[in-house]
């Protein structure tokens, strides 16, 4: 007589038979996105600290604005590349 599986253990068995859709490039993309986000976080924290200490000069404001936009865009595109890569594995919908 065949063993009976309930639905949950049947799905668990099916999932365990599928290859895990993760590769070395996933790790690389995730690392790049994490680094870019941490950089933006540091830029933002520096701007917050300057603002807390007092009124930033116009020059400082402009410098921070340029840096924040650049690091934000870098983080966004690294995150998009990560998302696009996971989509290729079918983990996310494109
Ligand atoms: Zn991958």
Oligomer description? single chain
Per DSSP, the total helix count is 3
Estimate the global geometry from the Cα principal axes: elongated
Per DSSP E runs of 2 or more residues, the count of β-strands stands at 0
The radius of gyration over CA amounts to: 22 Å
User: Termini, distance in Å?
Assistant: 45 Å
Provide the helix percentage: over 70%
By secondary-structure content and strand pairing, the structural class works out as mainly alpha
What binds here, in terms of ligands, is:
zinc ion
Main beta sheet: strand number and arrangement? none
Fraction in beta strands: under 5%
What average pLDDT do the residues reach? 88
N to C succession of SSEs = HHH
Low-confidence stretches: none
- Counted up, domains total 1
If you had to describe this structure to a student in words, what would you say it looks like?
The chain has 94 residues and is mostly helical. The chain has one domain (20-88). Helices cover 77% and strands 0% of the residues. The chain contains three helices and no strands. α2 (24-53) runs antiparallel to α3. The radius of gyration is 22 Å and the shape is elongated. It starts with 6 loop residues before the first helix and ends in a 6-residue tail after the last helix. The model has no long low-confidence stretch (mean pLDDT 88). The structure holds zinc ion. Zinc ion binds next to α2.
């Amino acid at each position: 007589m065949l063993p009976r599986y309930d639905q949950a253990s049947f799905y668990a068995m099916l999932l365990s038979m599928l290859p895990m859709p993760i590769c070395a490039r996933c790790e690389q993309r995730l690392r790049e996105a994490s680094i870019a986000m941490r950089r933006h976080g540091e830029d933002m924290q520096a701007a917050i600290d300057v603002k807390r200490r007092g009124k930033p000069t116009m020059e400082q404001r402009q410098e921070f604005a340029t840096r924040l936009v650049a690091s934000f865009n870098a983080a966004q595109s690294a995150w998009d590349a990560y998302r696009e890569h996971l989509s290729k594995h079918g983990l996310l919908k494109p």
